[in-house]
Amino acid sequence: MRTFNWAILGPGHIAHKFAESLALLPNARLHAVASRSAAKAQEFAAKFGAPHAVGSYEELLAVPDIDAVYVATPHSEHHAHTLLCLRGGLPVLCEKAFALNARQSQEMISTAREKGVFLMEAFWTRFFPAINKALELVATGTIGEVKHLAADFGFVASYQPEARLFNPALAGGSLLDIGVYPLFISKLFLGEPQDIKAVSVPAGTGVDLTCAMVLSYASGATASLFSTLAAQTDNQCIIYGSKGQLHLTGRFHAANGITLHLTGQEPEVIPCEKQGYGYHYEAQHVQECLEQGLTESPLLPLQFSQELMQLLDTIRQQIGLRYPGE
Question: Where is the GFO/IDH/MocA-like oxidoreductase domain (predicted)?
Answer without folding.
Answer: 132-246
